[in-house]
Specification:
CATH architecture of the largest domain: 4-Layer Sandwich
Bound molecules: fructose -6-phosphate
Number of strands: 25
CATH topology of the largest domain: Glutamine Phosphoribosylpyrophosphate, subunit 1, domain 1
Radius of gyration: 26 Å
Oligomer: single chain
Shape: globular
Strand content: 15-25%
Number of domains: 3
Largest sheet: 8 strands, antiparallel
Number of helices: 20
Distance between the termini: 30 Å
CATH superfamily of the largest domain: Aminohydrolase, N-terminal nucleophile (Ntn) domain
C-alpha cells in the first residue's frame, strides 16, 4: 500500500504534492518522491529519496530547489518489490526521462514485460515492478498516440492490481496533463477552482477541496488546467458523480473510520487479494521468492516455525499443514523460549520465521541461532528491507500494506495464507500422498473465493456486535477449540485481552475438564470455535460440559446447522470454505469481536497500554 498525489493548477505543484504526501505517509514511509513539470518547459524534474519525508524528500527538495511547476505527481512508498532506496523510490521514468509514473499495487507480469522491453532496447534503472509502466507508455507514445491513449494501451498489458498517475514534459505552452488509472487499488480525482488533483486517499486533498470523484475499477482520468475527462476500461467517456466529503483531517487519515484497527480489519479482503496474487496456480502454489528452500527440502527432517505473539499464533495454525504436506515433524515455537531452549539444530532443520515487523528482537536472535547452526531459513514478513527480510535465506512478503494499529489484524491473516502456500510449495517438491493432494487442491481451488467471503462476513456483523455487548460486561472470558480451532482461539483471546483489557484464556477444548473448568460459573462467556467436521462431535461434548456449569456459550461455526448451535446462546457463522483456510475467516470474526468489545469499554483501541507495535528489546 503506497500513497499517490497528483496536481495540476496555478499553485506550486511542489507544495501541494508535499502537503499531500505528508498526509498519506501513514500508507508507506520507506521512501518518497515527486516528478514536476517546469512551468517554463523542459525536462521533468524527478526528486526522490529513501526514508521518511522529513528526513529524505523534504531536505532533497531544499537541496535541488526545483523550478516553479504547475503540474506533477508524488508518491510515498511501502515497498513490495525491491529494497527501499533512492533508486527504487517512485516516480520512475522512461528511457529519456520524458514521462514519469507513480504506482500503488503490484504488477504481476513485470518480469516478462521487463524482458520484452529490454529486448526492444529500453534501459531500466531500478529493480521494481513499476518501472515497466513508463517504458510501456513510452513504447506507445513513440507510435504517435497521445499520453492518454498510450497509457490506455499500456494498461492492457498490465496484470495485477494498481493505481497509477502519469505525467509528461511540456514545452512551456501550459498544456500539461495528468493521467490517472484505477485498477483494483483506489484512486480519486479532486476538483477545485481551476485546479485538479489525483490521490489514493481523500486525506491528501482536504486542505484544497472536498469535492471528489471516486474512480471505478478500470477507469482512466485525464486532467488538464481546463478540466477533466473520465473514461471507462473500454475507453468510452463516462460521467461519475462528484461527491462532497465532510471529514476532518484526522478521520481522513483513517479513511473515515474511528480507529486504524477497524480500517485495517476492513482492508483484509483487499490484503488477501494482494497476498494471493500470482501465488495460486491451478495445481500448485507459486512462490518464486523461495529460491533456496526448494533445492534443500528433500534433505530436511524437521521444521520449526518461530514467532512471537500473534505471529506465533499464525505458526501454531500452520504447523499441521507443514507436517501433513511435507510429511516430516513440524513444531511451532515461541521465539523467546526457543532461543534459550538449546534446540537441536543443523542443516537438516528448516526454520521458518514469522514476523510482521521483521524487527522483533527475540525472533531475530533465533534467526542468528539457526543460521549459525547451518539451518536453511525462510522469513515471512510485511516489511521489505526489515532485518528479517535481509537476514533469511528466502523471504516471502505478506503484502498487507502498513499496519498502524498496535494489534495485528491483516498481517495475521495474510501470514496464515503465506504459511499455507509455503507448505504447499515445499510439499510439491517432495510429492504428495492422496490425502495431502486433496488438501492442496481444496486450498488452491477455494483461496480465490476467500476475499468475497471476507466481505460477506464484514457485511454481517449484527451477531458479533451482540456478543461484544455481552462480553463488555465481564472480566473473564474463555476461548475453546480443537486443532486449527484451538490455534484460532489462542489468537482470539490475545486480541480481546490486549485491546479490551478483559482477562481471556484459550484452552484446547478437551483439556478444560482437567482443571480450568473449575472456573466456569453462571454466565461466564465461553467462545467455542467448531469448524472441523471430524472434531464437531467432540466439540459438542465439551460445549455441553461448559454449559452444564452455567457457561454462556457463543459458538463460532461454519455450519449453521451444527447441532451445537441449538444449545448456544449466540452463534457466529463464518462462510464455509476449505478447512485449511477457515482460520483466516475465524480470525477476522474474532478480531471484530475484540474490536467492538474494546470500543464498548471505551478503550484506546489503536494504542493499548504498555504495548508497542514493534518489540525490539528482549
Ligand atoms: C498482537 C501483536 C503482537 C505481535 C508480536 C510480534 O496483536 O501484534 O503480539 O504479533 O509482538 O511482532 P512481529 O510480528 O512484528 O514479530
Amino acid at each position: 500500500m503506497c500513497g499517490i498525489v497528483g496536481y495540476i493548477g496555478d499553485r506550486s505543484a511542489t507544495e501541494v504534492i508535499m502537503e499531500g504526501l505528508r498526509r498519506l505517509e501513514y500508507r508507506g514511509y520507506d521512501s518518497a518522491g515527486m516528478a514536476l513539470v517546469p512551468r517554463s518547459g523542459g525536462s521533468i524534474q524527478v526528486i526522490k529519496r529513501q526514508g521518511e519525508i522529513d528526513k529524505g524528500l523534504a531536505p532533497g527538495i531544499r537541496e535541488e530547489s526545483p523550478d516553479p511547476s504547475a503540474a506533477g505527481i508524488g508518491h510515498t512508498r511501502w515497498a513490495t518489490h525491491g529494497r527501499p532506496n533512492d533508486i527504487n523510490a517512485h516516480p520512475h521514468t522512461d528511457c529519456d526521462g520524458g514521462l514519469a509514473v507513480v504506482h500503488n499495487g503490484i504488477i504481476e507480469n513485470y518480469f516478462e514485460l521487463g524482458r520484452e522491453l529490454r529486448n526492444e532496447g529500453h534501459v531500466f534503472r531500478s529493480d521494481v515492478d513499476t518501472e515497466v509502466i513508463p517504458h510501456l507508455v513510452e513504447r506507445y507514445r513513440k507510435t504517435g498516440l497521445d499520453l492518454l491513449e498510450a497509457t490506455m494501451k499500456a494498461s492492457t498489458y498490465l496484470r495485477g492490481a494498481y493505481a497509477l498517475a502519469v505525467v509528461e514534459s511540456d514545452d512551456g505552452s501550459g498544456n500539461e496533463a495528468l493521467v490517472g488509472v484505477r485498477k483494483e487499488s483506489p484512486l480519486i480525482v479532486g476538483i477545485g477552482e481551476g485546479e485538479y488533483f489525483l490521490a489514493s486517499d481523500i486525506a491528501a486533498l482536504l486542505p484544497y477541496t472536498r469535492d471528489v470523484i471516486i474512480l471505478e475499477n478500470g477507469d482512466f482520468a485525464f486532467l488538464t488546467r481546463e478540466g477533466y475527462r473520465l473514461y471507462d476500461q473500454g475507453g468510452e467517456e463516462v460521467h461519475r458523480e462528484v461527491e462532497r466529503v465532510d471529514w476532518d483531517a484526522d478521520a481522513a487519515e483513517r479513511g473515515g473510520h474511528p480507529h486504524f484497527m477497524i480500517k485495517e480489519i476492513l482492508e483484509q479482503p483487499e490484503a488477501w487479494v494482494a497476498a494471493l496474487q500470482g501465488r495460486v496456480g491451478s495445481d500448485r502454489a507459486q512462490l518464486p521468492e523461495l529460491k533456496n528452500a526448494p533445492s534443500v527440502v528433500d534433505g530436511i527432517s524437521q521444521v520449526h516455525l518461530v514467532g512471537c505473539g500473534t505471529s506465533y499464533h499464525a505458526a501454531v495454525a500452520a504447523r499441521p499443514q507443514f507436517e501433513r504436506l511435507l510429511g516430516i515433524p513440524a513444531r511451532a515455537e515461541i521465539a523467546s523460549e526457543f532461543r534459550y531452549g538449546d534446540p537441536l539444530l543443523g542443516p537438516d532443520t528448516l526454520v521458518v520465521f514469522v514476523s510482521q515487523s521483521g524487527e522483533t528482537a527475540d525472533t531475530l536472535a533465533c534467526l542468528d541461532l539457526a543460521k549459525s547452526a547451518g539451518c536453511p531459513t525462510i522469513g515471512i514478513t510485511n516489511v521489505v528491507g526489515s532485518s528479517l527480510a535481509r537476514g533469511a535465506d528466502d523471504v516471502v512478503f505478506t503484502r498487507a500494506g502498513p499496519e498502524i494499529s498496535v494489534a495485528s489484524t491483516k498481517t495475521y491473516t495474510t501470514q496464515l495464507l503465506i504459511l499455507d502456500l509455503i507448505a504447499c510449495h515445499l510439499g510439491s517438491v517432495l510429492g504428495f500422498d492422496d490425502d495431502a493432494r486433496a488438501r492442496v487442491d481444496a486450498l488452491l481451488e477455494r483461496a480465490p473465493d476467500l476475499p468475497g467471503m471476507g466481505w460477506e462476513l464484514l457485511d454481517n456483523q449484527e451477531v458479533i456486535l451482540r456478543v461484544a455487548e455481552y462480553l463488555a460486561g465481564w472480566e473473564d472470558v474463555f476461548f475453546i477449540g480443537r486443532g486449527l480451532d484451538f490455534a484460532a482461539a489462542m489468537e482470539g483471546q490475545l486480541k480481546l485481552k490486549e485491546i479490551s483489557y478483559i482477562h481471556a484464556e484459550a484452552y484446547p477444548a478437551g483439556e478444560l475438564k482437567h482443571g480450568s473448568i473449575a472456573l466456569i460459573e453462571q454466565g461466564i462467556p465461553v467462545i467455542a470455535i467448531s469448524t472441523q467436521d471430524h472434531l464437531r462431535e467432540k466439540m459438542a461434548s465439551n460445549v455441553e460440559a461448559a454449559r452444564a456449569r452455567g457457561g454462556w456459550i457463543c459458538l463460532v461455526t461454519d455450519r449453521p446447522d451444527d447441532s451445537t448451535a441449538q444449545i448456544a446462546d449466540e452463534v457466529i457463522v463464518v462462510p464455509r470454505t476449505a478447512e485449511i483456510l477457515t482460520p483466516v475467516l475465524v480470525g477476522l470474526a474474532l478480531q471484530l469481536l475484540a474490536y467492538h468489545t474494546a470500543v464498548l469499554r471505551d478503550c484506546p483501541v489503536d494504542k493499548p497500554r504498555n504495548l508497542a507495535k514493534s518489540v525490539t528489546v528482549e
